[in-house]
Amino acid sequence: MQVEQIIKLLQKKGNTKNLEGMKRYAIDTSNSFGISMPEIRAFAKPYKRNHELAMQLWDSGIREAMILASLIDDPKMVNKAQINKWVKDFNSWDVCDQTCINLFKKTPYAIDKAKEFSERKDEYVKRTGFVLMACYAVDNKTGNEETFDDFLTIIEREAWDGRNFVKKAINWALRQIGKRNDISRKKAITIAKRILKQPSKSAQWIAKDALKELEKEL
To answer: Model pTM?
Structure first.
């Protein structure tokens, strides 16, 4: 009953005028009420750390309810099976990114899933892998350099993928790793220059865009 009530409240907050703007940013609005992220975050505050409710909201398939689920779920209750199930439901980059930022990155599986998903064929599942790398880099300015060395190796390996939502996530991960500290910056620049030599247009875009940002700081 609570799920139905929440969805009705979300629907009341909906704004169909926002849907056109979302479409311009390549957000899937096929099952959306047109609610902005600040509004969803404000709406989530009374429901924090409710795993059961999060699971029910996610299963609704409604964009706002899915993002709300990622905001209120308890990372300690999330297991690998849930992550594997939820990534298969991603149908828009914003749901993917918000779920990674709000929930997946806070679980003990973030590193392993970043590596695992980076090899997947599905566009949004693969994007998840690189979004998790970017999130992990933002949250870990110091720490295990070996993990980030592994991420950079994967980034170089997958830079050929020209699908829009994959290449942008790869670029994001490369830039965020490079911005961690001076050591990471030098490593990321080295990898970017190697990627630049790859024959694919995607790889060259990823490298040029990353170098533009990372070399400014030298």
So the answer is: 0.94
